[in-house]
Amino acid sequence: MIFPSISGAVALEYRPGPIRNSIHEFYISPDGSDRNPGTRKAPFVSFKKADSVVRPGDTVYVLPGSYNGYTAENTIIIATSGDGSARIRWVSQTKWAARISGHVNPANGLGWGIVVSGNYVDLVGFDVTSNANMGVWVLGTHVRVIGNHVHNIPGQAGCTSYGASGVEQGNYSGGYMEVIANVVHNIGAGGPGSCNKYHGIYLAAPFDTAVNNISYLNASKGIATWHAASYNTISNNTVFDNDVGILVGAGDSPCYQTCVADHITVSNNVMYHNKTIGFWQYSKAGRHNVYTNNLVFGNSVRDVLLEGHCGNSATGTCNSFDRAIYADPQFVNPTGTFFTGDYHLKGSSPARRAGTVIGAPPTDFDGMLRLSNTAPDLGVYESGQRVVKETN
C-alpha cells in the first residue's frame, strides 16, 4: 500500500493552510526535553508542554516515535483552542510514524489514546491505539480528525455500557467534528458481532461529518450516529467486514426520548461484506434524512434495513434508500484489510461515476480531485483524476 501525503488525503475545504501560514512552529520528540524551546533542533518531549505554549495559527509537529496516551498518570490532552480564522494544527511529521498508545486506568478500567478538548483543532496523520476504550475522543467543537490510523482497541471485557470507539464525538452539545480520510479498524477485541457498543467512527452531535474514511473489522458499526446526532453528513466512505456497515439513529443522553436523528445525509458510500446489515436506519429517525447513491452488497443478513417511526408520528418509515446499487463494487483486491488489499475500483465497477454531488467532498482519500462535471465515484477513491498538491 502506498500512503498518500497528508496534504493530499484531505478534502479541499477541510485542508489546513500551507505550512508557511503557521504563525509559530513547535516540535515534539521522544528524545526531547520540556526545558527546550520546542524548535526543530531542540524539541519538547511532551504534548502537555506544547499545549501550554501553542496559540491560534500555530502548528505542532510530532516527530516519529512512541508516545504514551491518556492515563491517570500520563495525559495527552489537547486543550488549547484555535479560532475560526486561525486553527491549531497537530501534525505527525511523518504520516503514522508518531504512535500514540493509550493505557487502561486500573481505577476504572477506562483509557484513551488522545483527548481533544480544545476548539478549532486539527489532528493530522497519527497512529493511535489503546488497550482500553478509545482512540481519539473529541470534546471540543470544530475539531478535524484527518488522515489518522486508529486501530486495535479492545474495549472493556464483557461489552460494557461505556462502549468503545476509534474516533468518537464525546461532546453531545458541541458538534462540528469532521472525521476525514482516516483508516479505522479492529475496534472490539472479539471481532464483528461480539459487542454492539464498540464502533469505528461515532458521530453524536449536530453537524458532525465523516467523509473519505475506510472503516473495517469493528465489533459493531463501521460508522454510527447516536445520542444528539443531527445535520450529519456521511459520504464517500468505504466500510466492510464490520458487524453493521453504517447505522443512523439517536437516543440516550443528553435527550433520551426526545433525540431525533434528522437532516442526516448518507451518500456515495460503499457498504460491503458486513456480517449482518449494510445500512441500518434505527430508532428515532427524522423525516428529512437523505440516503442516496450508495452501494450495498454482500452483507450477510440484509443489505438495507429501514426502521424507526420518524419522531413517533408515523406508522412506517418515512425515508427511502434512493438510487442504490446492489452489486459487487469490484474492488481491485478486497483482502479484508487496508494493508494487504486494494480498495480502488476496477474499470468495470458499477460504483464508478455512480455518485451524487450531495455530500461529496471535492477530493478523495488519495487527494484526487473528484469530478466536477459528471457524477463522482462511490467510496473513498476517485478514478482517473489528478492529485491535489500544496504549494509552498
Characterise this structure.
The protein is 2% helix and 31% strand. It has an 11-stranded parallel β-sheet with strand order 1-2-5-8-11-14-17-20-23-26-29, with no helix packed on it. The protein has a 9-stranded parallel β-sheet with strand order 3-6-9-12-15-18-21-24-27, with no helix packed on it. Strands 4-7-10-13-16-19-22-25-28 form a 9-stranded parallel β-sheet. The chain has a domain of 201 residues. The chain is mainly beta and 392 residues long. The two termini are 27 Å apart. The protein is globular, with a radius of gyration of 20 Å.
Q: What is the straight-line distance between the termini?
A: 27 Å
Count of alpha and pi helical runs: 1
Query: Unreliable stretches, pLDDT < 50, 5 or more residues?
Result: 1-20, 311-315, 388-392
Q: Structural class given helices, strands, pairing? A: mainly beta
| Main beta sheet strand tally, sense and closure | 11 strands, parallel
The largest beta-sheet arranges its strands as: 1-2-5-8-11-14-17-20-23-26-29
Rg from alpha-carbon coordinates: 20 Å
Fraction of residues in H or I helices:
under 10%
What integer is the average pLDDT? 89
Number-wise, the strands total 31
Beta strand %: 25-35%
Shape: globular
Entry summary:
This protein is mainly β. The chain contains one helix and 31 strands.
Question: Any chance you could write out the topology, listing elements then pairs?
Answer:
Elements: E1 25-28, H1 47-53, E2 59-62, E3 65-68, E4 77-78, E5 88-92, E6 98-102, E7 112-116, E8 121-124, E9 127-130, E10 134-138, E11 144-146, E12 149-153, E13 164-169, E14 178-180, E15 183-187, E16 198-203, E17 209-211, E18 214-216, E19 221-225, E20 233-235, E21 238-240, E22 244-248, E23 265-267, E24 270-272, E25 277-281, E26 290-292, E27 295-297, E28 302-306, E29 321-322, E30 331-333, E31 342-345
Parallel strand pairs: 1-2, 2-5, 3-6, 4-7, 5-8, 6-9, 7-10, 8-11, 9-12, 10-13, 11-14, 12-15, 13-16, 14-17, 15-18, 16-19, 17-20, 18-21, 19-22, 20-23, 21-24, 22-25, 23-26, 24-27, 25-28, 26-29
Antiparallel strand pairs: 30-31
